[in-house]
Amino acid sequence: MSTAAALEDMALLDDTDLDLLLLIRHFELTVLDLFAHGQLSGTTHTCLGQEYIPVAMTPLLQPAFVVSNHRGHGHYLAQFRDPAGLLAEITGRAGGTCGGLGGSQHLYRDGFCSTGVQGEGVPIALGAALHLRRVRRPGLAVVYLGDGTWGQGVVYEGLNMAQLWSAPLVLLVENNGIAQSTPVGNAMAGSVAGRTAGFGVRYQEVVTTCPAAIRRQLADPVRQTRDGGGPLIVEFRTRRLGPHSKGDDTRDKAELAAISEWDWYARYRRRYPRQFDASDEVQRRRMADIVSEVLARPLATGTAS
User: Fold this and answer.
1) Element (H, E) at 125
2) What is the value of pTM for the model shown?
3) What is residue 219's three-state secondary structure?
4) Which of 119, 133, 245, 258 is at 20 to 30 A from 175, Cα to Cα?
């Protein structure tokens, strides 16, 4: 399928997928707004534009131990549907996922952890994958990483061991074309596909933003990894709609306008306006209610909920 055809492969979403996509979108917009008003503890990095990836992948991968990264709110929400707990964590309020100690980047919950250290997720997930196999426990280890993380040597050490030992490991590469403010072409020689081939690891490229199409494409490769076929790398050709962190977007207006036009949110709204607008309003109101409730809580004491 060509890139143009894949981007038009936008099936009518079931209500569960659409609600979750829009929940993550409005959560991230809320986080940026709260940061602008001085109501967040520490920093934050949103996944605006990339929400469809964890929405598509989470049901396909379970059961799994998931290792996320600094841009991990969508990964967490897709797995746990817990916006109040995550928002409480980020705002340093009672009931936060990690008692207000982890903030936006460093989360832990059964079956999930995230880290702000570039590349660290690969060896963590590899260890989890080998443990699952050693104790004969069903499931996968999954790590989310970006294009910028391929500059870390530990990624290649992990890939080498994962392939040698046929680890049940899935690496989900969210290649949004820019590492903080550096275009991928200025930082990476070759390609993710080429580097993957050097280790003999199975590889899939995904260009569609449709969750149903993604699941159709990846169901069999994921099953092969689960059944002992060794690691899998999936490279998503995606776009980062928001800034790297908060207000640090160096891209010009024309590029940002093109990304907004490409964004799944705009395209689904145009194609399915009635279904989209109804769900969008529900999730907007839901997040407004969550913000009111969470910000009324006392400050966290450092004890996880």
Assistant:
1) helix 121-134
2) 0.92
3) helix
4) 133
